[in-house]
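Q: What would this chain look like folded?
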Amino acid sequence: MELKLHRVIKTEGNKNYEYIGLISELPEESNEKDLEMNHKFDWCVKKSFEKSPYFGNVSYKEPKYGFYISRWKTVYDRYFSKEMKLEDNLSERVRVQYEPKKSGKSTSGNEFSSGKFYSVASSSRLAVTSFTELKEGFLDYIDEIKINGNLEKILNIEFEHDTPVKGINPNSHCPQLDAYFKTKAGTYFVEVKNHEILDNYKSIELRPSYMSTEPFNRFCLQKDLTEKIKKDKDGNDTKDSFISLKGNLEKNRFLLASDFGCDLKTYHFDFKQFLCHLMGIWSYAEEHPEEEIYFYYLVYRNKLYEESFDKKLYEELEKEINTVFELFKKLFPQIHFGLCYNDRYDTLEELRNIF
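A: My prediction, written as C-alpha coordinates:
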Protein backbone atom coordinates (compact mmCIF):
# COMPACT_ATOMS: atom_id res chain seq x y z
CA MET A 1 0.00 0.00 0.00
CA GLU A 2 1.32 3.42 -0.96
CA LEU A 3 2.54 5.58 1.90
CA LYS A 4 0.63 8.82 2.41
CA LEU A 5 3.16 11.63 2.44
CA HIS A 6 2.47 15.33 2.65
CA ARG A 7 4.33 18.53 1.83
CA VAL A 8 3.81 21.56 4.01
CA ILE A 9 5.30 25.05 3.93
CA LYS A 10 5.51 27.42 6.88
CA THR A 11 6.58 31.04 6.69
CA GLU A 12 8.53 32.71 9.45
CA GLY A 13 9.81 36.22 8.85
CA ASN A 14 11.28 36.41 5.35
CA LYS A 15 11.94 32.65 5.10
CA ASN A 16 9.83 29.69 4.08
CA TYR A 17 10.31 26.26 5.62
CA GLU A 18 9.38 23.22 3.56
CA TYR A 19 8.74 19.85 5.18
CA ILE A 20 8.08 16.46 3.55
CA GLY A 21 6.83 13.46 5.50
CA LEU A 22 4.10 11.50 7.17
CA ILE A 23 1.53 13.49 9.11
CA SER A 24 3.17 12.38 12.35
CA GLU A 25 6.51 13.90 11.23
CA LEU A 26 5.21 17.33 10.26
CA PRO A 27 4.53 20.56 12.16
CA GLU A 28 0.98 20.63 13.51
CA GLU A 29 0.10 24.07 12.21
CA SER A 30 0.82 24.29 8.50
CA ASN A 31 -0.87 24.55 5.13
CA GLU A 32 -0.71 21.40 3.02
CA LYS A 33 0.79 21.80 -0.46
CA ASP A 34 0.97 19.56 -3.53
CA LEU A 35 3.45 16.71 -3.35
CA GLU A 36 5.55 15.75 -6.40
CA MET A 37 7.22 12.41 -7.17
CA ASN A 38 10.71 13.75 -6.52
CA HIS A 39 9.55 14.84 -3.06
CA LYS A 40 8.49 11.25 -2.33
CA PHE A 41 11.76 9.94 -3.76
CA ASP A 42 13.83 12.24 -1.57
CA TRP A 43 11.83 11.36 1.54
CA CYS A 44 12.53 7.68 0.89
CA VAL A 45 16.26 8.37 0.51
CA LYS A 46 16.21 10.34 3.75
CA LYS A 47 14.30 7.53 5.50
CA SER A 48 16.92 5.00 4.39
CA PHE A 49 19.54 6.86 6.44
CA GLU A 50 17.91 5.52 9.60
CA LYS A 51 19.48 2.15 8.73
CA SER A 52 22.23 2.86 6.20
CA PRO A 53 25.04 5.44 5.78
CA TYR A 54 24.36 8.91 4.47
CA PHE A 55 28.04 9.73 3.90
CA GLY A 56 30.10 6.56 3.79
CA ASN A 57 32.12 5.59 6.84
CA VAL A 58 31.90 9.06 8.37
CA SER A 59 28.14 8.71 8.99
CA TYR A 60 28.66 8.55 12.71
CA LYS A 61 26.84 11.76 13.58
CA GLU A 62 23.09 12.07 13.95
CA PRO A 63 22.09 13.83 10.69
CA LYS A 64 20.65 17.32 10.87
CA TYR A 65 18.39 18.63 8.13
CA GLY A 66 17.44 22.05 6.78
CA PHE A 67 19.45 23.96 4.16
CA TYR A 68 18.59 27.52 3.13
CA ILE A 69 18.46 28.05 -0.65
CA SER A 70 18.62 31.82 -1.12
CA ARG A 71 17.26 31.67 -4.66
CA TRP A 72 13.94 30.36 -3.33
CA LYS A 73 14.17 31.96 0.12
CA THR A 74 13.33 28.55 1.54
CA VAL A 75 14.82 26.14 4.06
CA TYR A 76 14.36 22.56 2.78
CA ASP A 77 14.29 19.55 5.10
CA ARG A 78 15.33 17.25 2.24
CA TYR A 79 18.79 18.77 2.46
CA PHE A 80 21.32 18.23 5.23
CA SER A 81 21.99 21.22 7.43
CA LYS A 82 25.02 23.32 6.54
CA GLU A 83 26.05 22.80 10.18
CA MET A 84 26.99 19.24 9.18
CA LYS A 85 29.99 20.64 7.23
CA LEU A 86 30.06 17.53 5.03
CA GLU A 87 32.98 18.81 2.94
CA ASP A 88 35.19 18.84 6.03
CA ASN A 89 35.10 15.04 5.93
CA LEU A 90 36.75 14.90 2.49
CA SER A 91 40.45 14.68 1.78
CA GLU A 92 41.83 17.83 0.18
CA ARG A 93 42.27 16.19 -3.24
CA VAL A 94 38.64 15.03 -3.25
CA ARG A 95 37.21 18.25 -1.85
CA VAL A 96 38.93 20.45 -4.41
CA GLN A 97 37.13 18.61 -7.26
CA TYR A 98 33.93 20.40 -6.23
CA GLU A 99 35.49 23.84 -5.81
CA PRO A 100 35.90 25.13 -9.39
CA LYS A 101 37.91 28.19 -8.42
CA LYS A 102 40.59 25.88 -7.03
CA SER A 103 40.29 22.95 -9.44
CA GLY A 104 40.02 24.99 -12.65
CA LYS A 105 37.26 22.68 -13.88
CA SER A 106 34.35 23.83 -16.01
CA THR A 107 31.81 23.25 -13.24
CA SER A 108 29.51 26.22 -12.75
CA GLY A 109 29.27 27.06 -9.08
CA ASN A 110 30.42 25.52 -5.83
CA GLU A 111 28.40 22.40 -4.95
CA PHE A 112 28.96 22.93 -1.24
CA SER A 113 27.77 26.53 -0.93
CA SER A 114 24.95 26.03 -3.45
CA GLY A 115 23.58 23.10 -1.46
CA LYS A 116 23.73 20.55 -4.30
CA PHE A 117 26.10 18.33 -2.34
CA TYR A 118 23.81 18.62 0.71
CA SER A 119 20.67 17.31 -1.01
CA VAL A 120 19.73 13.94 0.51
CA ALA A 121 19.57 12.59 -3.05
CA SER A 122 22.74 14.29 -4.31
CA SER A 123 24.36 12.51 -7.25
CA SER A 124 27.68 14.17 -6.44
CA ARG A 125 27.65 12.83 -2.89
CA LEU A 126 26.69 9.39 -4.23
CA ALA A 127 29.66 9.54 -6.62
CA VAL A 128 32.00 10.48 -3.78
CA THR A 129 30.78 7.82 -1.35
CA SER A 130 30.80 5.14 -4.07
CA PHE A 131 34.45 5.67 -5.01
CA THR A 132 36.05 6.68 -1.70
CA GLU A 133 36.85 5.05 1.63
CA LEU A 134 37.90 6.30 5.06
CA LYS A 135 41.63 7.01 5.29
CA GLU A 136 43.11 8.75 8.32
CA GLY A 137 39.74 10.25 9.22
CA PHE A 138 38.83 11.54 5.74
CA LEU A 139 37.04 10.11 2.70
CA ASP A 140 39.73 9.60 0.08
CA TYR A 141 39.92 7.81 -3.27
CA ILE A 142 39.71 4.02 -3.25
CA ASP A 143 42.86 2.17 -4.38
CA GLU A 144 41.12 -0.77 -6.03
CA ILE A 145 37.68 -1.71 -7.28
CA LYS A 146 35.81 -4.86 -8.22
CA ILE A 147 34.44 -4.55 -11.75
CA ASN A 148 32.22 -7.26 -13.20
CA GLY A 149 33.80 -9.86 -10.93
CA ASN A 150 37.44 -8.75 -11.34
CA LEU A 151 39.40 -6.84 -8.71
CA GLU A 152 41.40 -4.09 -10.40
CA LYS A 153 43.94 -1.59 -9.09
CA ILE A 154 43.07 2.04 -9.80
CA LEU A 155 45.85 3.96 -11.52
CA ASN A 156 44.14 7.35 -11.70
CA ILE A 157 40.80 8.69 -10.47
CA GLU A 158 38.96 11.99 -10.19
CA PHE A 159 35.48 13.46 -9.88
CA GLU A 160 33.83 16.12 -12.06
CA HIS A 161 35.98 15.05 -15.01
CA ASP A 162 36.03 17.41 -18.00
CA THR A 163 35.63 15.57 -21.31
CA PRO A 164 36.17 18.02 -24.22
CA VAL A 165 34.49 17.37 -27.56
CA LYS A 166 36.76 17.42 -30.60
CA GLY A 167 35.99 20.56 -32.58
CA ILE A 168 34.40 22.46 -29.66
CA ASN A 169 36.16 25.12 -27.61
CA PRO A 170 36.27 23.58 -24.10
CA ASN A 171 35.83 27.05 -22.62
CA SER A 172 32.49 27.24 -24.44
CA HIS A 173 30.96 23.81 -23.82
CA CYS A 174 32.73 20.96 -22.05
CA PRO A 175 30.76 17.86 -21.00
CA GLN A 176 31.59 16.69 -17.49
CA LEU A 177 31.33 13.20 -16.02
CA ASP A 178 30.69 12.58 -12.32
CA ALA A 179 33.60 10.16 -12.03
CA TYR A 180 36.54 8.95 -14.11
CA PHE A 181 39.18 6.34 -13.36
CA LYS A 182 41.76 4.18 -15.10
CA THR A 183 42.87 0.61 -14.47
CA LYS A 184 45.15 -1.68 -16.47
CA ALA A 185 42.01 -3.13 -18.05
CA GLY A 186 40.60 0.15 -19.29
CA THR A 187 39.40 3.71 -18.81
CA TYR A 188 36.00 4.28 -17.18
CA PHE A 189 33.74 7.30 -17.55
CA VAL A 190 30.91 7.17 -15.01
CA GLU A 191 27.78 9.30 -14.88
CA VAL A 192 25.83 9.07 -11.62
CA LYS A 193 22.05 9.47 -11.36
CA ASN A 194 19.66 9.68 -8.44
CA HIS A 195 16.24 11.38 -8.41
CA GLU A 196 17.01 12.84 -11.86
CA ILE A 197 15.46 9.69 -13.34
CA LEU A 198 12.05 11.11 -12.39
CA ASP A 199 12.48 14.08 -14.74
CA ASN A 200 11.00 14.08 -18.22
CA TYR A 201 13.70 14.27 -20.89
CA LYS A 202 11.59 14.09 -24.04
CA SER A 203 12.88 17.30 -25.62
CA ILE A 204 16.59 17.36 -26.57
CA GLU A 205 17.98 20.89 -26.42
CA LEU A 206 21.38 20.48 -28.10
CA ARG A 207 23.42 23.53 -29.00
CA PRO A 208 24.16 24.29 -32.71
CA SER A 209 27.94 24.31 -32.16
CA TYR A 210 27.85 20.50 -32.02
CA MET A 211 26.50 20.20 -35.59
CA SER A 212 29.90 20.74 -37.22
CA THR A 213 31.74 18.15 -35.10
CA GLU A 214 32.80 14.70 -36.29
CA PRO A 215 31.16 12.76 -33.42
CA PHE A 216 27.82 14.49 -34.04
CA ASN A 217 27.92 13.42 -37.68
CA ARG A 218 28.31 9.82 -36.55
CA PHE A 219 24.79 9.97 -35.12
CA CYS A 220 23.47 9.52 -38.69
CA LEU A 221 20.49 11.83 -38.30
CA GLN A 222 20.28 12.21 -42.08
CA LYS A 223 17.79 15.03 -41.65
CA ASP A 224 17.67 18.67 -42.63
CA LEU A 225 18.93 20.47 -39.54
CA THR A 226 18.40 24.07 -38.55
CA GLU A 227 18.53 26.24 -35.45
CA LYS A 228 15.61 27.13 -33.23
CA ILE A 229 15.49 30.11 -30.92
CA LYS A 230 14.16 29.12 -27.53
CA LYS A 231 11.16 31.03 -26.24
CA ASP A 232 10.58 32.11 -22.67
CA LYS A 233 7.37 31.37 -20.77
CA ASP A 234 5.73 34.43 -22.35
CA GLY A 235 6.57 33.34 -25.90
CA ASN A 236 9.39 35.83 -26.41
CA ASP A 237 12.69 34.93 -28.07
CA THR A 238 15.64 34.28 -25.75
CA LYS A 239 19.37 34.42 -26.51
CA ASP A 240 19.54 30.61 -26.53
CA SER A 241 19.32 28.60 -29.74
CA PHE A 242 19.34 24.84 -30.23
CA ILE A 243 19.45 22.26 -33.03
CA SER A 244 16.09 21.59 -34.65
CA LEU A 245 14.68 20.00 -37.81
CA LYS A 246 13.07 21.54 -40.85
CA GLY A 247 9.80 20.43 -42.39
CA ASN A 248 8.11 18.85 -39.38
CA LEU A 249 4.41 19.01 -38.58
CA GLU A 250 5.54 20.66 -35.36
CA LYS A 251 7.39 23.52 -36.98
CA ASN A 252 11.04 23.71 -35.98
CA ARG A 253 10.62 21.58 -32.86
CA PHE A 254 13.62 20.49 -30.82
CA LEU A 255 15.23 17.12 -31.44
CA LEU A 256 13.66 13.95 -30.04
CA ALA A 257 15.10 10.49 -29.33
CA SER A 258 13.11 9.19 -32.30
CA ASP A 259 15.18 11.42 -34.62
CA PHE A 260 18.17 9.28 -33.63
CA GLY A 261 16.31 6.01 -34.21
CA CYS A 262 15.35 5.35 -30.58
CA ASP A 263 11.73 4.36 -30.03
CA LEU A 264 11.35 5.16 -26.34
CA LYS A 265 8.21 4.57 -24.28
CA THR A 266 9.42 6.46 -21.21
CA TYR A 267 11.79 9.40 -20.66
CA HIS A 268 13.71 8.77 -17.44
CA PHE A 269 17.02 8.96 -19.32
CA ASP A 270 18.72 12.31 -20.02
CA PHE A 271 19.25 11.71 -23.73
CA LYS A 272 20.72 15.13 -24.48
CA GLN A 273 23.32 14.80 -21.72
CA PHE A 274 24.12 11.29 -22.95
CA LEU A 275 24.86 12.63 -26.44
CA CYS A 276 27.18 15.35 -25.10
CA HIS A 277 29.03 12.89 -22.86
CA LEU A 278 29.28 10.39 -25.69
CA MET A 279 30.81 12.97 -28.03
CA GLY A 280 33.40 13.82 -25.39
CA ILE A 281 34.21 10.18 -24.65
CA TRP A 282 34.49 9.38 -28.36
CA SER A 283 36.89 12.31 -28.75
CA TYR A 284 39.03 10.81 -25.97
CA ALA A 285 38.84 7.34 -27.53
CA GLU A 286 40.06 8.68 -30.87
CA GLU A 287 43.19 10.04 -29.18
CA HIS A 288 43.76 6.84 -27.16
CA PRO A 289 43.01 3.94 -29.53
CA GLU A 290 45.12 1.58 -27.41
CA GLU A 291 42.73 1.85 -24.43
CA GLU A 292 39.52 -0.04 -23.70
CA ILE A 293 36.88 2.64 -23.10
CA TYR A 294 33.86 2.17 -20.81
CA PHE A 295 30.89 4.51 -20.48
CA TYR A 296 28.88 3.43 -17.43
CA TYR A 297 25.85 4.85 -15.65
CA LEU A 298 25.72 4.37 -11.89
CA VAL A 299 22.16 4.77 -10.59
CA TYR A 300 20.96 4.92 -7.00
CA ARG A 301 18.50 2.08 -6.36
CA ASN A 302 15.88 3.59 -4.06
CA LYS A 303 14.31 0.40 -2.72
CA LEU A 304 11.84 2.07 -0.36
CA TYR A 305 10.51 4.29 -3.16
CA GLU A 306 10.33 1.30 -5.48
CA GLU A 307 8.34 -0.72 -2.93
CA SER A 308 6.10 2.12 -1.77
CA PHE A 309 5.39 4.24 -4.84
CA ASP A 310 6.59 2.92 -8.20
CA LYS A 311 7.44 -0.74 -8.69
CA LYS A 312 8.06 -0.23 -12.43
CA LEU A 313 10.49 2.71 -12.24
CA TYR A 314 13.77 0.82 -12.57
CA GLU A 315 12.28 -1.72 -14.97
CA GLU A 316 11.27 1.15 -17.25
CA LEU A 317 14.66 2.81 -16.86
CA GLU A 318 16.51 -0.39 -17.80
CA LYS A 319 14.39 -0.91 -20.92
CA GLU A 320 14.90 2.69 -21.95
CA ILE A 321 18.67 2.69 -21.44
CA ASN A 322 19.05 -0.70 -23.11
CA THR A 323 17.22 0.62 -26.19
CA VAL A 324 19.64 3.55 -26.36
CA PHE A 325 22.75 1.42 -25.78
CA GLU A 326 21.76 -1.17 -28.41
CA LEU A 327 21.69 1.55 -31.05
CA PHE A 328 24.76 3.53 -30.07
CA LYS A 329 27.09 0.60 -29.49
CA LYS A 330 26.74 -0.05 -33.23
CA LEU A 331 27.65 3.57 -34.04
CA PHE A 332 30.49 3.66 -31.49
CA PRO A 333 31.88 0.10 -31.33
CA GLN A 334 35.05 1.25 -29.54
CA ILE A 335 33.01 2.18 -26.44
CA HIS A 336 31.55 -0.33 -23.96
CA PHE A 337 28.25 0.81 -22.44
CA GLY A 338 26.87 -0.27 -19.07
CA LEU A 339 24.33 0.35 -16.31
CA CYS A 340 25.16 -0.30 -12.65
CA TYR A 341 23.44 0.27 -9.29
CA ASN A 342 24.36 1.30 -5.78
CA ASP A 343 21.68 1.23 -3.07
CA ARG A 344 23.80 2.85 -0.35
CA TYR A 345 25.73 6.08 0.13
CA ASP A 346 28.81 4.01 0.84
CA THR A 347 31.82 2.50 -0.93
CA LEU A 348 30.62 0.52 -3.92
CA GLU A 349 31.09 -3.21 -3.36
CA GLU A 350 31.22 -3.89 -7.09
CA LEU A 351 30.73 -1.97 -10.31
CA ARG A 352 28.64 -4.56 -12.13
CA ASN A 353 27.06 -3.99 -15.53
CA ILE A 354 23.55 -5.45 -15.47
CA PHE A 355 23.40 -5.83 -19.27
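The longest helix spans residues 313-331.
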